[in-house]
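Readers outside the structure-tokenisation community will struggle with the description of the input data as it stands. I therefore recommend that a typical entry be quoted early in the introduction. An entry of this sort, consisting of the sequence and the corresponding backbone structure tokens, reads as follows:
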Amino acid sequence: MIHRFHCVFGCLFVLASTVFLAAQTFKVIQPPGSETSYSAGVLANGTLYVSGQGSSARNFPAQMRDAMRKVQAVLRGAGMDFDNVVWMNIYVTDAHNLAPMDDVYWQMIGSSPPARTVLTVAALPDGEMVEINCIAVEGERKAIWPAGWPRGPRIDPPAIQAGEMLYLSAQGGKADADFSTETRQALENVSTILNAAQMSMKNVLWVNPYMSVSGQYDVMGKVYKTYFEFGNTPGRGTIQVAGLPKGQHIVFSCIAGADLSKRKAVRPRNMPPSPTASPGIIYGDTLYLSAKDGFIPGQGIVTPLFDLQLRQSMRNLLDGLEEVDMDFSNVVFSTVYLRQMKDDGQMNELYNKFLKPPYPARTTLQQNFETGDEAAEQISFIAVRRQPAKTDEASR
């Protein structure tokens, strides 16, 4: 069982020598006595990555309030609060709880809400009904509103810009359109937001296409690839979820970076160029790795066994990390998508054979009810490079 967080303390891990020390160490926000296989939050280079926060309260509104308070506790442990959040994901296990979720959210989030994505999923750890993760930043941030887009109470900002980074709320199309048209409408909305921030689709680093229907992957891909350059597409995790708000069938959640000179596609030698997804994108010191499952390059998934698939997923992720001279110690934010939540315990045990303290922030969920899928799991990573810098003594 995963034990949830009750209080928050910061722990600072420092590596030093007589000549070099880490220019930016990771500050881990972790309450004593809580789950030790992942950190409640990880602060790196002024960006805080917060693990999925849930609750064991009896009813949904209480769980939602508790989850929001736990997110806030992690933020405050890093010297931040809700007005520092730039990107938030809320996962609920019952679409009937979307309205009470929204009521609590807007009561608590304050006057400067983040970009947000809301998903209905099949299951969360420990039978929770809601879980929330987020990314927050130090310093100034501003909402991006394309001209003519609706504003008002209880409307998510289309995007939040913090320095060079742009974080988009999930963008969809009209639910009554055919799937191809709905996909194109959603991507046009993404493009409009980027243009309002003086960016384009070339600036996108990471995309999550979330679909509430099966059998439409190729339809989505046919439209999607027309918006990006072959071999230079963003990192991506395409996830089929149990449901989306407003009856939508597809939405896109994105992160973009303004400086194209800092953006580079990462492609291990065993993964050919793709028209729809790069294995990863590095932007400055941050690597956005596409969700990987247990496929063997050139052969696909060759075993139904969960443990072997997970080991291969980790190998595939490590290939991307090593391509930019990183390893598992650089990972700060991880999302684990399980075919069945009953595999959570086995996943947790194997996962920690690869990742060691200080653990990354992590969110685990079962995305849909199609338990016969070939892939037993998928995992996506965000990783941050730690650059050495000379000490004062060495610079004299």
